[in-house]
Amino acid sequence: MRIATTINELKSLLQICRNEGKTVGFVPTMGALHNGHASLVKRSVVENDVTVVSVFVNPTQFNDKNDLKNYPRTLEADCKLLEDVSADIVFAPEVTEMYPEEDKRQFSFSPLDTVMEGACRPGHFNGVAQIVSKLFYAVEPDKAYFGEKDFQQLAIIREMVRQLAINVEIVGCPIVREKDGLAMSSRNTLLSAEERERALTISRALFQSLEYAKNNTLSATRLFVENIIAETEGLDLEYFQIVNGDTLQELKNWNECDYVVGCIALFCGKIRLIDNIKYKG
Questions:
Q1: Is 37 one of the annotated active-site residues of the chain?
Q2: Where exactly does CATH 3.40.50.620 map onto the chain?
Q3: What is the pLDDT of residue 34?
Q4: Which candidate in 32, 33, 36, 37 is catalytic?
Q5: Which among 106, 149, 223, 273 is placed 20 to 30 Å from 238, CA to CA?
Q6: DSSP per residue over 42-74, as a string?
Q7: CA gap 46, 43 in Å, rounded
Q8: CA distance 42 to 10
Q9: Which among 5, 20, 28 has a CA at the least distance from the CA of 143?
Q10: What is the pLDDT of residues 137-168, one digit of tens each?
């Protein structure tokens, strides 16, 4: 496995691969890797000749400076995990490499970016689009892999690729969960033991709502989840919305579309967590 820290170094390594006619898969990450990331890398390894993984904590997508400061950084452990799952190239640049000057590009993905995460974290998706587009231009992958836990992000990246006419196939991969149901997240490492136990309420509420939804209205199902979260001390719900999986717009009835997803964001103590569940589609 090779480690590149500059775009020129990365492009040189990839040019050798392309000269040999090899396909390139790409998994962009912010590090603090876990088995969810590993599942993306494993899929890329199966589907491509060469797999590139970026490890870069992108400052432009954080609207909370403390969140950026506290985000876990574990490059040495990340490289060990990536070597174990047969990644070929790790791209681990410094901030000055990716942003030699301020990126002033402003993206609009309306209405995808005006709801949920977009409403709660102003500027977040603009920062995501800035860094992911930069990484796509550097790697020029045939396929790029993203987890469905970041459901809204996946929809926005697909739209960004369409807007910028980037020639890459975006592959969405299922949420990977711990044995007890908690969606894997780099932020989980920041939870205390007590908070980690409380966080299990999130997936339990979502999975219980799947059964509840079979015999109840959409609004009742939303309230069902909200009440479970409200009854758990230490959890502070930011939103739970049941949306059209394509447009991300909130629904009023189950029969409005054939692709229905419930998306949740909350604080467990000071740590912000997200998850989602598919009701239809």
A1: yes
A2: 2-173
A3: 95
A4: 37
A5: 106
A6: HHHHHH-SEEEEEE---GGG-S-HHHHHHS---
A7: 5
A8: 21
A9: 28
A10: 999 999 999 999 999 999 999 999 999 999 99
pLDDT at 64: 84
Could you give phi then psi for residue 182, rounded to 5 degrees? -65, 130
Q: What is the pTM of this model?
A: 0.95
Residues 183/264, Cβ–Cβ less than 8 Å = no
Pick the CATH number of 186-276 from 3.30.1300.10, 3.30.70.920, 1.10.3720.10, 3.40.50.720: 3.30.1300.10
pLDDT at 65: 86
Tell me the CA distances in angstroms from 179 to 35, 57, 130, 176, 205, one per residue in order. Answer: 12, 27, 35, 10, 16
What pLDDT does residue 12 have?
98
CA 63 to chain centre: 16
pLDDT, one tens digit per residue, over 111-122 is 999 999 999 999
Give me the chain's average pLDDT, please. Answer: 97
Residues of the chain with CATH 3.30.1300.10: 186-276
Domain 2-173 fold is Rossmann fold (3.40.50)
Going by DSSP bridges, is the β-strand pair 50-55/143-147 parallel, antiparallel, or unpaired? Answer: unpaired
- Could you check whether the bond before residue 59 is cis, i.e. omega within 30 degrees of 0? no
- pLDDT of amino acid 26: 98
Q: Are 18 and 49 in contact (CB under 8 A)?
A: no
